[in-house]
Amino acid sequence: MKRKLICWLPLLLLIGCSQPTYRTTSLTPDKRAELLLKELTLEEKVALMMDTSQPVERLGIKPYNWWNEALHGVARAGLATVFPQPIGMAASFSPQTVYEVFNAVSDEARAKNTYYASQGSYERYQGLTMWTPTVNIYRDPRWGRGIETYGEDPYLTSRMGVMVVKGLQGTNDGRYDKLHACAKHFAVHSGPEWNRHSFNVENLSTRDLYETYLPPFEALVKEAGVKEVMCAYNSFEGEPCCGSNRLLMQILRNDWGFDGIVLSDCGAIADFYNEYGHKAYSDAESASAAAVLNGTDLECGSSYKALVKAAQEGKIDEKDIDKAVLRLLEARFALGEMDAPEDVSWTKIPFSVVASAAHDSLALDMARKSMTLLQNKDNILPLKRGGLTVAVMGPNANDSVMQWGNYNGMPSHTVTILDGIRNALGADDKLIYEQGCSWVERTLIQSVFNQCKSADGQGFTARYWNNVKHEGTPVTTTQVTTPFRFCTSGATVFAPGVNLTDFSVTYNSVLTPLQSGEVVFEIYTYGSGCLRINGEEVKRFRNTHGGRSLDYTLQVKAGVPYDIELDFEYFRSDAQLNFDIGFKQKVNIDASVACVKEADVVVFAGGISPLLEGEEMGVNLPGFRGGDRTDIELPAVQRELIHALHRAGKKIILVNCSGSPIALEPETKNCEAILQAWYPGQAGGTAVADVLFGDYNPGGRLPVTFYRNMSQLPDFEDYNMTGRTYRYMTQQPLFPFGYGLSYSTFEYGNLSLAKEQIKVGEPLKLTVNVTNNGQRDGEEVVQVYLKKQDDAEGPGKTLRAFKRVRIPAGKSVEVAFDLNGKELEWWDAQSNTMRVCAGRYDVMVGKSSQDRDLQRGSFVIE
């Protein structure tokens, strides 16, 4: 018997070795995840449940950082194509173009990940899990993060969001997913920013929840198959969103069948128990256990470290932890992140796609489609070249950073509005540039960098080390004679012989000002470091979320020398450092008006900036609080300058750059034309000029209501929809949702319904003939709205279909719609659900949401 066993032993070993393991690539991701899960200890499982997932070397699991961004291009990882901000893309009303944009973004993301992995780098902003899109409803124009959304309408947001996800996630190549997208921030979350870590949304009607706030998320889950959902910071009905059984378990998991990853917003679990947060739990163990038990698999943060202790204390069973870890492992296997790069087809996408000419062209196409013409008195636009003197003014005229928006990458080049207009002028035309004012403050900065001189000559002496601690002998020493514009994007080193990563530098000089006054040190950086003046540290910085602006102000005396020392250290991804020094000068409106007295027309590039509106910012200037706005008017200094130009008889074209609606009522009187340009990305200046000079016929439409003033806004902290957005607003706005002008005139024929009575489950078919009566080819956005006649509590109208249609000059196009399923659903108060309900409905078709632009018909669902 012993001899038989010895004879069989090699075969038994062979059979044992042939058993499938988590390394067997022919297995499905879920099976591989099950096999790997069995090999992990509790401590190893927990270490995989945070955004910076630790390696398990004994099992060959590499480190992985789940946190990556692609809001409108691969973000915070250096070189990338920068497309318009999402609110601008929403203005295109072109889901197909949105898909093309994010298909390009996914190519760049894969190429960049392949490069980083080849270098053995697994840092934040280098992975394959992209935390976008933001599909929260932009219910209030004061919310700073509304710039990241696709507007105020649930249907438009759903259509755009679905295309973002489809473009990012692409197709499965037969074995592996291209990328994973993330719907955020689930679900009732749209400001204020200043109290988001403790705010509780309560007393929200069930109707508003299901009719307004949930539809985009449901569409991304059910239609687009989004792989991740991020829960929000705030509480909902007394429960932190990342621990909300109703949101995550009942609605997302059970009702919608979502089986992907739920992840927390960054630091949201700590908000459960911290003093400044919700104070819903006493400690990290209880909070972390509650989050996992209520469906949050992955934490952006480090509170989940407490899960080991929580399991040991019986606050959570290890089997519940296993459910979350299983989803995380399955996702990593599905992306091919666990396998050899050569086995994954997506790694064959070349790095040359990043910031390629084709993607630059696509950025221009989307920027053009986002341009929204709001006013054009006496058809002053398009401008006619030939002997024309154009004055370009305003704080956004020559600002590339403004155009990049937020959550952005670093483009290889940017065409500013000033550049675009300069490039568009003819040989006989003349350009005058006079900034005139800043966004909010009544001062401007005049550079005095040329008044800096080090011991080695004009400018700053720079000493570089190929380590992050300024240690040892510098690898090189150079002289910088112009304001700093350093960035390692595109493998561009700060100086010859210096590393792309893991380097540090010290810049030294002496400023001897020629005049006394207030000097500002302006720094825009992605990295860490500090500023010292006369040996004293006055400003320290460490930016963890991409490029940020900061400044320091110093009173100086003429002729007195000031020792300046600036330290900088590489932090992660692509390092960036812009630095300049300048005197603050008071805005002189009369002098600025005099500078442009010869101009035939003034193009005033005004508005605000993503340095003022955005996510939980430290900005507290008049009209702004922590990234939100406290006043929706155009800042006073800009308004006064525009008024002075008007009084001087100037014809003014306002190019308004913002991610939020600006109350422009006075500007409608003082300006001949108003073009809403949003934050238009790297090609924005070209797109603006193309519209101003008629090389492109604008077709953008407003995805948000532009209000007349603050009196038209309800309480910012009230999430009920009464009085909000075009759907529930009873007052007349300045510019309505869906509105936008063209250089063509479009005439609508009669609305035709295939049937005026349909059954539940049957589509509503309708057509309308649209004629371009203008002299130019143009694009019209045909919009379809519904209203249930016997529903007095419901929206006055709500968008349910749209098409952006190109119509040649003098031609007519028949535009057809089939409204099915979700497009015909209405709120049913008896069942507290959205469903197709019997009843009589109004159907409205036209060029905007305002009544005068719409034709009405009616139909019955029986």
Question: What's the gist of this structure?
Answer:
24% of the residues lie in helices and 24% in strands. It is an alpha+beta fold.
Q: How much helix, percentage-wise, in residues?
A: 10-25%
How does the major sheet shape up? 8 strands, antiparallel
Rounded to the nearest angstrom, the distance between the terminal CA atoms is 81 Å
Low-confidence parts, pLDDT < 50 over ≥5 residues?
Answer: 1-17
Number of strands: 40
CATH level 1 name of the largest domain: Alpha Beta
Which CATH architecture of the largest domain is right?
A: Alpha-Beta Barrel
How many structural units, i.e. domains?
A: 4
Q: Proportion of β residues? A: 15-25%
Q: What structural class should be given to the helix and strand makeup?
A: alpha+beta
Rounded average pLDDT: 95
Q: Which topology of the largest domain does CATH recognise?
A: TIM Barrel
CATH superfamily of the largest domain: Glycoside hydrolase, family 3, N-terminal domain
Based on CA atoms alone, the radius of gyration comes out at: 29 Å
Quick one: overall form?
globular
- The count of helical stretches stands at 21
Organism: Bacteroides stercoris
Pfam families: Fn3-like, Glyco_hydro_3, Glyco_hydro_3_C
EC number: 3.2.1.37
InterPro entries: BXL (IPR044993), Fn3-like (IPR026891), GH (IPR017853), Glyco_hydro_3_C (IPR002772), Glyco_hydro_3_C_sf (IPR036881), Glyco_hydro_3_N (IPR001764), Glyco_hydro_3_N_sf (IPR036962), Ig-like_fold (IPR013783)
Question: What can you see in these coordinates?
Answer:
This protein is α+β, with helices and mostly antiparallel strands and 862 residues long. The chain has 4 domains: 2-347, Glycoside hydrolase, family 3, N-terminal domain (TIM Barrel, Alpha-Beta Barrel), CATH 3.20.20; 371-442 and 588-693, Rossmann fold (3-Layer(aba) Sandwich), CATH 3.40.50.1700; 445-583, Sandwich (Jelly Rolls), CATH 2.60.120.260; 746-861, Immunoglobulins (Immunoglobulin-like, Sandwich), CATH 2.60.40.10. Helix content is 24%, strand content 24%. The protein is built from 21 helices and 40 strands. Strands 13, 14, 15, 16, 18, 20, 21 and 23 form an 8-stranded antiparallel sheet that branches. Strands 9-29-28-25-10-11 form a 6-stranded mixed sheet, with helices on both faces. Strands 12, 17, 19, 22 and 24 form a 5-stranded antiparallel sheet that branches. A hairpin with a 7-residue loop joins β39 and β40. The longest helix has 24 residues, at 95-118. The termini are far apart.
